[in-house]
Amino acid sequence: MKIDLIISAGDIKKEKVLHKSAVVIDMLRATSVITTAMNNGCKRVIPVLTIDEALETAKNIKEEVILGGERKGLKIDGFDFSNSPLEYSRDVIGGKTLIMTTTNGTKAIRGSIGASSILIGSVLNARAVAEKLLKLKDDVVIVNAGTYGQFSIDDFICSGYIINCLKEMTAVELSDVASTANYVYENNSDIKSFAKFAKHYKRIMELNLQEDFEYCCKKDTIKIVPEFVDGEIIIR
């Protein structure tokens, strides 16, 4: 299995994802939200790029809809919830459709179209993602959402953990950047401690989101792997 890594949503190129299994990671916090919401019974998540697209999509859906997301880490005016996974409890999201737009994560998901499979990854479901990739038997590209188009330490260490899980399961051929991510994880397996070096961590602390940070750094608490299929994220 060949494994490559893209360092931010702004660096996605079609040929890098084409016909591969892509794993999109925005651990602080979009993919952690999606994984949590789906684990708590969310019917589907529709990731969109803009606020206007989210509002328009909501108008055209007859079933009960939740609007969620952020801009610069803050809840969007008129939306139901922000980008905190702790808000998406079973009683809130169970059986409903979540329409979501975020600064980095939803851009990375939509930018990965062309991959044979698009999986939603986080620290929360990292080992489950690795197990799913093993079953798919494709080459892999891990897509880091990054932060405002730039490399992000938090997504990178999460990628390293998923790569490390795959190394335990099968023979892998790593690109230089994937090998670096694995090396970083092997020498910093306490994800929470290492992620505190991230610029994104400082922003999370500025917004008093310590609980979100603690939650998003918990390894393998969720066993499902959401997938982006035909414009929506589902479990299949």
Automatic annotation (TrEMBL):
Top EC class, one word: hydrolase
UniProt keywords, alphabetically: Hydrolase, Magnesium
InterPro entries in alphabetical order: ComB-like, ComB-like_sf
Record-annotated membrane-spanning stretches: none
Catalyzed reactions: (2R)-O-phospho-3-sulfolactate + H2O = (2R)-3-sulfolactate + phosphate
Cofactor: Mg(2+)
EC number annotated for this UniProt entry: 3.1.3.71
Top-level lineage group: Bacteria
Family: Belongs to the ComB family.
HAMAP family: ComB (MF_00490)
The protein's name in its UniProt record: Probable 2-phosphosulfolactate phosphatase
Organism: Clostridium neuense
Lineage: Bacteria, Bacillati, Bacillota, Clostridia, Eubacteriales
